[in-house]
Amino acid sequence: MINSIDVAVVWDDPEHPELFEGLRAYAARVPDLDVRETGAAALLRMAEPRPDVVLVEVAPREGGPGTAADVRALCRAGYRVLALCRSSDPYLSASLLGTGACLLPGRKQTIAAIVAAIRASAPRNGAAGSTGDTRPQLSRRERSVLLAYASGMTLDAVAEQVGIRPSTAKTYLERVKAKYLEIGRPAYTKLELVQRAREESASSGGY
What we know:
By secondary structure, this protein is α/β, with parallel strands linked by helices. The protein contains nine helices and five strands. The protein has a five-stranded parallel beta sheet, sandwiched between helices. The relative contact order is 0.13.
């Protein structure tokens, strides 16, 4: 028997329902997803049972259905949050660092990629999904580069923010990949690095 993943979606623009409708159509074709629309305020009032994953399409403006403040509040309340940030504003992505959410940057995130992130974030067999001792020992600089890169920044932008050369930023990122590979948790793709960044962000309490 396949356990369905209960996904609550807080999305930005009701006049353009492509995200929610696309996820709902995808869920109708597979046995392991159950997708429903909701709001951050309703989730914060919700008692058990809670959704397995909350997907927040983060609005580039305050007052939208999903904001960086909503993401922080939902993470503090114990929800597993995927923050979809399709704005080109780097400051919006940076504001989500340290929240504990998994960041999904990029204006062209496909439904398949979002579903893959949902499945990766969902608890397995009722477990809490803690990474336990399966995180490598990253230096502060390595962690900073990982978090910034996973927020959607280019390597040049990461280097400028951290205060290093782009080639040095690339070296730090390669070290991060190598350390995860050493413990049997390779992070070859951007999506895998985003997931690792979520774990590092949650464990460190942000910067």
